[in-house]
């Protein structure tokens, strides 16, 4: 398993994967000769260490440990693989370990990355939570890193607003870090997705957090930095977003606050967009957010949905929310299929989650195209 043997996002491995495929790349890693096949990619001393790790990998046991933790493996080409990651080129993840009831690809279709300082001020925590909550109320999901401070506030705000949130971690799916966010991670697993490049048993490292940031930036069409010092990891995420030609946004703060100095630098030197609320963010994310400020909308027309997804939409009530099991029965599909289609419909802005379950989102026009179940 490449993800258990080689450094995440290494361009040498990515180049060989692109040219030779996963099977040959794995054999080259095991033999320690992958650098010989990399062509113009500069050499590295890492292949010897990778070969040692590869020979020690027990793929079957790795999958067993993942299953015990409730994690699944998602690889490029799978239905759940987010296509935006392809923008990373040879630094694209080789695979992702995923936990949660949500669908990773669907959750990222209509999303914004929200990042910031771990030691956030009361101002930063309030802004992150409120911004994420309001985005969620308009059926946007939030991607962040699961850390203390702004990340955790953004995840909680999104969950409170009724949308799925995506936590991208720098550790194995069975060693969720930081441990102090255990309750938050349990909520994310229940209503969203946790994902990581690292296999079971891997502990986080300082370098791992920096490498992880490129995935956060790649999963969403834009990144919002709420509060960050001049040497914050959030600026690293913003740099990745800029390199990917994604929208970079920053929230201004008090000029006397060192925690907002990074945001002010983004605004002054990086030409980041100044945002103050969810409507600003949605407006900046192009056609996907078009019309949200004026009272709601969907990513696509109902008529553009495939037949299976439209069938599930027709089974969602327009008023009182119901659970996925009832929707699956009404649509005549299995639970897993219903959950996948519900995730897509939520990402598209057609439906919303309420305290009693899923319902058609008011004001989208979708209610006029489905059966008026109550």
Automatic annotation (TrEMBL):
<dbReference type="InterPro" id="IPR057666">
    <property type="entry name" value="DrpA_SLOG"/>
</dbReference>
<comment type="similarity">
    <text>Belongs to the DprA/Smf family.</text>
</comment>
<protein>
    <submittedName>
        <fullName>DNA-processing protein DprA</fullName>
    </submittedName>
</protein>
<dbReference type="Pfam" id="PF02481">
    <property type="entry name" value="DNA_processg_A"/>
</dbReference>
<feature type="domain" description="Smf/DprA SLOG">
    <location>
        <begin position="73"/>
        <end position="285"/>
    </location>
</feature>
<dbReference type="InterPro" id="IPR003488">
    <property type="entry name" value="DprA"/>
</dbReference>
């Amino acid at each position: 398993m490449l993800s258990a043997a080689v450094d995440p996002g290494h361009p040498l491995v990515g180049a060989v994967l692109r040219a030779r495929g996963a099977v040959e790349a794995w054999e080259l890693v095991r033999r320690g000769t992958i650098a010989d096949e990399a062509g113009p990619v500069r050499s590295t001393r890492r292949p010897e260490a990778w070969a040692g790790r590869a020979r020690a990998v027990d793929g079957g046991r790795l999958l067993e440990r993942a299953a015990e933790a409730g994690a699944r493996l998602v690889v490029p080409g799978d239905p759940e693989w987010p296509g935006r990651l392809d923008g990373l080129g040879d630094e694209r993840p080789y695979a992702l370990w995923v936990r949660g009831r949500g669908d990773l690809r669907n959750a990222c279709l209509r999303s914004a990355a929200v990042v910031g300082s771990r030691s956030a001020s009361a101002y930063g925590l309030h802004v992150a939570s409120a911004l994420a909550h309001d985005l969620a109320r308009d059926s946007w999901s939030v991607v962040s890193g699961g850390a203390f401070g702004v990340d955790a506030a953004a995840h909680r705000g999104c969950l409170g607003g009724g949308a799925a949130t995506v936590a991208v971690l720098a550790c194995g799916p069975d060693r969720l870090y930081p441990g102090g966010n255990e309750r938050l991670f349990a909520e994310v697993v229940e209503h969203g997705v946790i994902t990581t490049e690292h296999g079971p048993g891997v502990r986080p490292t300082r370098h791992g957090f920096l490498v992880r940031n490129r995935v956060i930036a790649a999963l969403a069409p834009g990144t919002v930095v709420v509060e960050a010092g001049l040497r914050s990891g959030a600026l690293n995420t913003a740099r990745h977003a800029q390199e990917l030609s994604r929208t970079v946004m920053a929230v201004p703060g008090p000029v006397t606050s060192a925690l907002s100095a990074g945001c002010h630098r983004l605004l002054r030197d990086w030409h980041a967009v100044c945002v103050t609320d969810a409507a600003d963010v949605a407006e900046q994310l192009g056609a996907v957010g078009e019309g949200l400020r004026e009272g709601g909308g969907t990513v696509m027309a109902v008529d553009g949905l495939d037949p299976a997804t439209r069938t599930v939409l027709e089974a969602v009530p327009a008023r009182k929310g119901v659970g996925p099991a009832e929707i699956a029965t009404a649509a005549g599909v299995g639970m897993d299929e219903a959950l996948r289609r519900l995730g897509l419909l939520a990402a598209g802005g057609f439906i919303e989650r309420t305290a009693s379950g899923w319902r058609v989102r008011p004001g989208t026009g979708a209610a006029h195209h489905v059966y008026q179940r109550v």
